[in-house]
Design brief:
Blueprint (H helix, E strand, L loop, with lengths): L2 E4 L2 E4 L2 E4 L8 H22 L10 H4 L1 E3 L5 E4 L4 H4 L2 H14 L4 H22 L8 H10 L3 E6 L3 H11 L7 E4 L11 H10 L6 E5 L2 H9 L4 E5 L4 H6 L5 E3 L5 E4 L3
Parallel strand pairs: 3-6, 3-8, 6-7, 8-9, 9-10
Antiparallel strand pairs: 1-2, 1-11, 4-5
Helix pairs in contact: 1-5, 4-5
Length: about 260
């Protein structure tokens, strides 16, 4: 059986399941732009209806960190934008519209229109950038005979599209979005479906993600190891308290083919 070596510890595995956003692709590069566009349009929509705009401090809305210009510069790895589904985000936005005086139906319509606008901007710009060493690691896994799948809180169609933008889609034998399971993260459903489509047992897979939701999903499914992707900021490693191992980049992982 191939082995994945993490911090010097070898794990015999047959497959690796990857989260997408913040694990394979640069989260802020894609979803920061999308979020800024959506929130700006929604706030402008409120003002056009004679209502108060969204608050200047948007950090508590979706769990984002904003710079002095109001741009999304970072995100809470355990917050709604990183762990929630699109439906979760739209519900939060709809709630804020309702609180400002719209009916729930009006707020939903406005949120959906703003989402479509942000989606259109994202599709036109094809804003996706792989994390450092990610594509090289995928190539090494393929050479070592390790099967791979993506398990993401994103919708499956959107996930497939963004993997195509990255040039990473051919590496994966399965893509499981939140719309393909009854329960999303942190429940084990995505792992179970991905393992079924790869033809492996959950005890034979590693899960790599950037949130504790990913780690909980892995452990509830009985995965061999749950690896947290913290990135270069040491503070993020502390937040991944439920990971079996934490890495700053894919350069810290090695794969060994079955002898």
């Amino acid at each position: 059986m191939p082995r994945l070596r993490v911090n010097g510890v070898p794990y015999p595995i047959r497959a690796i399941l990857f989260d997408k956003d913040g694990t394979l692709l640069d989260f802020i590069y894609t979803w920061g732009r999308w979020g800024e566009r959506l929130l700006a349009r929604f706030s402008a929509g409120l003002q056009a209806r004679g209502l108060a705009p969204l608050p200047e401090d948007l950090s508590s809305l979706w769990g984002t960190v904003h710079d002095e210009n109001g741009s999304i510069a970072d995100y809470d790895r355990n917050g709604p934008l990183s762990m929630g589904t699109l439906g979760d985000l739209m519900s939060i936005l709809t709630w804020h519209g309702y609180r400002r005086g719209l009916s729930w139906a009006e707020a939903k319509v406005l949120a959906e229109a703003c989402r479509q606008d942000a989606d259109g901007m994202l599709a036109q710009s094809r804003a996706a950038k792989a994390l450092p060493h990610a594509l090289e690691f995928l190539a090494r896994c393929l050479d070592a005979g390790i099967a791979m799948a993506v398990v993401t809180a994103d919708e499956t169609v959107q996930a497939v599209t963004q993997l195509e933008w990255l040039g990473a889609l051919p590496y994966f034998s399965a893509v499981v979005g939140t719309d393909r399971v009854e329960r999303g993260k942190p429940f084990p459903d995505m792992v179970a479906l991905a393992c079924a489509e790869l033809g492996v047992n959950s005890r034979e897979v590693a899960v790599i993600g950037d949130t504790n939701g990913d780690m909980r999903m892995a452990k509830s499914a009985g995965a061999a190891v749950a690896i947290g992707m913290a990135g270069p900021n040491p503070a993020e490693a502390i937040r991944l308290s439920e990971a079996d191992a934490v890495i700053a980049s894919y350069a810290e992982l090695t794969v060994e083919a079955d002898e």
